Request: fold
Amino acid sequence: MHIPLAEPPAAAGAEHLEQQQAAITRLGHELRALVEATVRTAASADTLHRVADGVRHVTGQLTGRRRARTEIPEVDGFPGGPRMYSPVVGAGSPLAPPVRITPTDDGLIGHCTLGIAHEGPPGYGHGGMSAMLLDELMGQACTAAGTPGLTVSLQMRYHQPIPLETPLRIVGRVTGTDKRKIFAAGTITTQADPSTDLVTADAVFITPDPDRTRALFPGLEEEA
Ligand SMILES: CCCCCCCCCCCCCCCC(=O)SCCNC(=O)CCNC(=O)[C@H](O)C(C)(C)COP(=O)(O)OP(=O)(O)OC[C@H]1O[C@@H](n2cnc3c(N)ncnc32)[C@H](O)[C@@H]1OP(=O)(O)O
Reply:
């Protein structure tokens, strides 16, 4: 079983997928604005109840077919393609900052800004968010290197707090491989001061064997 990295959407239907992705991105943007307003507001209880009623009404409009748990959305490519609903990079996810990733000669660089919704200590990023950002960047670096894998070990080191509302730079790169094991490293700095590490991480990823891959991801299309 050979699993190819995801290709961009085929020409037929590409326009439909682009329209879907644009709409998903727009809704994600509005939802993130709602989340930001929600965690910052000092509105009265009456107002909060009224807004909650409105949100419940809006949620009720997302009717129709719902995707199954293991289904890969048509707008996504896995592994190696867009992940519209990822809690890290997904433009459609209100949970995601979202991180924008670009390749480099040595791995991947991600850019994002964390908001108050990602707060741990007052004014600073939640340590779990840092782990999520680095896990994603290192995981995607494995995929970009042609060796996609699942995290089996994640070692975090927190050197300085991550400032909120400050553009961040997240680096992920593969440092070695040993059969199905891929070793990776990552750092978070501010964009303004990329030489001062705020958080660093080392991780081990494993490419599941073909039987495990089929069992874990039944939605993956196989290539003969
Ligand atoms: C192509 C298919 C798609 C692939 C996937 C793509 C995903 C693309 C997502 C990209 C973006 C997501 C980025 C976020 C990444 C997540 O969030 S991943 C989610 C969190 N991780 C998980 O849920 C993984 C849970 N773990 C598992 O399911 C199983 O451990 C795995 C990964 C399937 C591996 O199981 P296994 O194949 O039975 O592995 P096993 O034979 O026990 O061990 C293999 C080798 O690794 C070693 N090993 C095992 N555990 C460890 C460890 N903790 N430390 C060091 N070595 C270890 C073993 O000693 C063994 O070594 P050797 O004896 O061969 O030298």
About this structure: The longest strand covers residues 168-178. Strands lie at 100-104, 107-112, 150-158, 168-178, 181-190, 199-206. The chain has a mean pLDDT of 94. The helical segments are 14-40, 45-59, 127-144, 210-216.
